[in-house]
Amino acid sequence: MSKVTVVGAGFVGATVAQYLADNNLSDVCLIDVVEGLPQGKALDMMQAAPITGHDCKIVGTNDYADTKGSDIVVITAGIARKPGMSRDDLLKTNAKIVKDVAEKTIKHSPDAIYICVTNPLDVMTYLTWKTTKLPASRVMGMAGVLDSARFQTFIGMETGMSVQDVRAMVLGGHGDLMVPVTSYATVNGVPLSEFLSAEKIEELVKRTQNGGIEIVNLMKSSAFYAPGRSVVQMVEAILKDQNRLLPCAVYADGDYGLKDVYIGLPCVLGKDGVKKIVDIKMNDQEKEALAKSAASIKENIDLMNKLLVAV
Ligand code: APR
Fold first, then answer.
1. Which class is 3-141 in CATH?
2. CB-side exposure of 276: number of CA atoms within 13 Å?
3. Helices 144-159 and 225-239, interaxial angle, to 10°?
4. What tens-digit pLDDT sequence spans the chain (311 residues)?
5. For 144-305, CATH number?
């Protein structure tokens, strides 16, 4: 059985652990700073095993020694932005947490593949890569799968057709400037424009860009079911060497004309992590939007570097 460490036993982390076990994908080490929390959740999940019928071991801990030998490390540790909190405060707090987590986990699992989930996503993934010093192919962020799933959900709702036949990718940063690539969106290969007007598609794009905040406004805390499921799709692609083409936050080193930045791009995921970044043709508007998104992430990486030096 493979071993996946999930750092942060909060809403997203626990959901990842649960889906991993429910799908019989791996043993799970759930770790958090809060004493008792990961242990309690792990025990609760273990007690669901006889009913679900899986053989995965789920261990809850506060001790990084227990993460030893993980194949994959998923980082969900951090805080969500609260009312009155500036983006800088969030950046500084989560950067400190993610750096600490990356340092502690890499010591025990030097060959792991990392999937970062903590926000601001693209910047935290960059920090994970810098801190672990792993090859960029072994460090990625989860956002594109989730944003694409949201876009696909809205397309399904609007066309009245099964989401199983809807394919669409969202690239760029995980934020207001994300880029839903409408030119490639299809219902079973039929272009979206055959079903929906340009105005309607634009509405769905806007709703996708605000997909996270729509949920926060409803339940006053951030999403976890779809984010958790998205992480597990990436984990499965890696553990089973599936070579899935998925949008993930990956290191751009000249790809799409972008350099030294983590950003959502289509890539092939398999046992070695990011096997390759796939270069797709985009229209001018999409290209421009991607460049704008990358510029904003770069600004935040610079800001994070300054804030971390000041710590
Ligand atoms: N080490 C380990 N765990 C930590 C640390 C740390 N240094 N600091 C905080 N945590 C834990 C918290 O104790 C908490 O249990 O991280 C967990 C975060 O869980 P939640 O507050 O429930 O947040 P969640 O909704 O899971 O979101 C986690 O993912 O999607 C992103 O924006 C979201 O950045 C946020 C992250």
1. alpha beta
2. 4
3. 120
4. 999 999 999 999 999 999 999 999 999 999 999 999 999 999 999 999 999 999 999 999 999 999 999 999 999 999 987 777 777 788 999 999 999 999 999 999 999 999 999 999 999 999 999 999 999 999 999 999 999 999 999 999 999 999 999 999 999 999 889 999 999 999 999 999 999 999 999 999 999 999 999 998 899 889 999 999 999 999 999 999 999 999 999 999 999 999 999 999 999 999 999 999 999 999 999 999 999 999 999 999 999 999 887 65
5. 3.90.110.10
Ordered by start, the domain boundaries in the chain are 3-141, 144-305
Per DSSP, helices labelled H in 27-86 are 37-46, 49-52
- Ligand 1, CB within 6 Å, residue ranges: 7-13, 32-34, 37, 76-78, 80, 97, 100-101, 117-119, 222, 224, 227
Would the pTM count as exceeding 0.90?
A: yes
Per-residue DSSP letter, 63: -
